[in-house]
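quick one, 449 residues, struct below
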Amino acid sequence: MSARQTTISNLLGPFQRFFKVEAASGILLLICTAIAMIMANSSASDFYARAVNWELSVQVGNVFKLSKPLLLWVNDGLMAIFFFVVGLEIKREVLVGELASFRQAALPILAAIGGMVIPASLFIALHGNHPGAEGWGIPMATDIAFSLGILSLLGKRVPLALKVFLAAFAIVDDMGAVVVIAAFYSESVGWDNLLIAGALFVMLALAIRAGMRNGEVFLVVAGFIWYFVLKSGLHPTIAGVALAFIVPAQRSIKLSVFNRVTRSSLNKFEATDSEENMLLRKDQLEALDNLEVYYRKVHSPLQYLEHKMHGFTSYLVMPVFALANAGVLLSAAAGEPVIGTLSVNIAIALVLGKVLGILVFAWIGIKLKITDLPAGTNWKHMAGLGLLGGIGFTMSMFISSLAYQDAGLLNHAKIGILIGSLVAGVLGYLILRYTLKPAIGTDNTSEEA
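---
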């Protein structure tokens, strides 16, 4: 392999690993969704309802007690961790990724804005002031795991630039979701608790800026910040994103220093006459300690945390979220339809609103000559990608759980999300399947494996 090929491989490697994790996570999410729906509509429905509403308490003597149903521990706790990882991804993309330069960032940003504004506007126009109007934010969301999972089914025929665009678009879309949740789907603000959270946040940020790199301290203070943001009435996922933004991206040492120290330490382990000894020498033990210290220092904390936590959120947090939230009842009370007007309007806004918003705003950006289409793509591919953006699923369900307190409206919303996401996913797959050219030297079977 040439030096140029090695460099390209090193640059693309993290993204390709990210893509594979998200694709596999999408399959797991689908399985968990099916399990939740089967349980909610079978003889296990009572068990399912008791499980998600099971009261779980964390108590420290008589000083502190926090009690919530399991469903809220998932939506307020685990989802805060998910949004922390989203925040890490956003910061990385802004610093060194697809959002690092204006021309690179313009297309996914414009597409994401269109993919939020048009679906929300379409829902408002369709639904008017009927019950459930407060759910206008539901069709704005995109589920990155499901959308990348469907894209992965197309195999090698998908240009890498198209995958990068979809990932960058979904990350910007997540940024929009954070703003919408903070501004429109949080309770009235308790300023005393918010001020405490703000003071702790500033102290933590200053300590990190001064060189503090203690993970245990960060975790404890972050836990208190999460608690006070929760008590303030703002949704605690906001705390997750904010904390991610203060995680340092710079390494503690230069690569040249790391190379010098590791070479010096490894030299202690060169073959000697006593290499068969069971125990290491004192200088070898010291060398191992050095390697461990400098291994931590050469890591970017931002990159390290994202790498370590991405699998946790993809394979545990989001599947558990799906299990807890996707138990949609496919039956209705006497005289009420299973699929209501709210369901239909959400589905239309997800399918039609997303693709129109993404295409129109991307077209405007290209006509203004501030950006370009991804390499190797055309408008048919963008239409297919726009439809994949209409897979709201877990993110839309999350917003619906914040928008509706009424169980009937929430169930109708979830049915609309499932229908809209299914239709958008199937149509997006079919359009891309028949407009993308098969990779040279591969057959259809190998591509779709």
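DSSP finds 17 helices and two strands in the chain.
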